[in-house]
TrEMBL record, chain A:
<protein>
    <submittedName>
        <fullName>Two-component response regulator ARR22</fullName>
    </submittedName>
</protein>
Automatic annotation (TrEMBL), chain B:
<dbReference type="Pfam" id="PF01627">
    <property type="entry name" value="Hpt"/>
</dbReference>
<dbReference type="GO" id="GO:0009927">
    <property type="term" value="F:histidine phosphotransfer kinase activity"/>
</dbReference>
<dbReference type="GO" id="GO:0000160">
    <property type="term" value="P:phosphorelay signal transduction system"/>
</dbReference>
<dbReference type="GO" id="GO:0005634">
    <property type="term" value="C:nucleus"/>
</dbReference>
<dbReference type="GO" id="GO:0009736">
    <property type="term" value="P:cytokinin-activated signaling pathway"/>
</dbReference>
<dbReference type="InterPro" id="IPR008207">
    <property type="entry name" value="Sig_transdc_His_kin_Hpt_dom"/>
</dbReference>
<dbReference type="InterPro" id="IPR036641">
    <property type="entry name" value="HPT_dom_sf"/>
</dbReference>
<keyword id="KW-0597">Phosphoprotein</keyword>
<feature type="domain" description="HPt">
    <location>
        <begin position="39"/>
        <end position="134"/>
    </location>
</feature>
Amino acid sequence: MIGAEGASSSKKARISENPVSKNRPYFALVVDDDPMIRRIHSMILKSVGFKVEVAENGKEAVDLFRTGAKFHIVFIDMEMPVMDGIEATKAMRAMKVESKIVGVTSRNSETEREVFMQAGLDLCYTKPLTMAKIVPLLEELQKN
Amino acid sequence: MNSNQLQHQVLYMRRSLFDQGYLDSEQLIQLEDLQDDANPNFVEEVVSLFYSDSARLIQNIEQTLSNRPVDFSRLDDILHQFKGSCSSIGAKKVKDACSQFREYCNAGNAEGCSRSFQLIKQEYETLRRRLESYFQMVKQAKAA
């Protein structure tokens, strides 16, 4: 892109270092009612080699697992209509979903984040996701 | 303008967006880093989604502010969403205006909320105008 100083060389370096693209694909599910967040988070994950599906709310995410879909990692928003992230995470864990589930929220309240964690999250991040947050998760998936 | 002049104009407009505090350079560069041949308009798509989000949220604020008594908790929720949306594209001035609004919300100050809402709308309209001009110039420079 014109004016994107240094962007293309750093992008090429990152993708060529990415271990996921060299091995089997990893599958990620992005759950968020905001189409902008779904688009951005999907692109970040795809850029490091994930195959990505999206869901607009917690119920869609739970239904995906009910139909037999499998994901290595789920990124789930806390506040969504129909079924929020807390209820969806509880439902997924009750179904014995073993995927890593990462909460993504713009809420700063420790209490709210703790409630979200207690629902069964492995981690909770503040929005928006960035490369710096994704790469360590990727490396952990590779180790396991 | 010839190609060189257009490119300089693009760089100047971009630098101004950062230097004048309208956009966070890190966030924009991250979005640009994700843009590739398969998704050549990714940044503009995300910015369009930001416009849609913002229009909806501004309408929600307007409706909530016009109700009596003012539902400050609902306003806080909406502003929280708006701040999150601003963070995704690095819309700094709009985000700061949202923070100011939330302070008035927490204080239960309806008059203060109305005043900061005017500022939010002003900053958003200015940002939108600047971004539309910027992307128009980028297209012209690419075509030259």
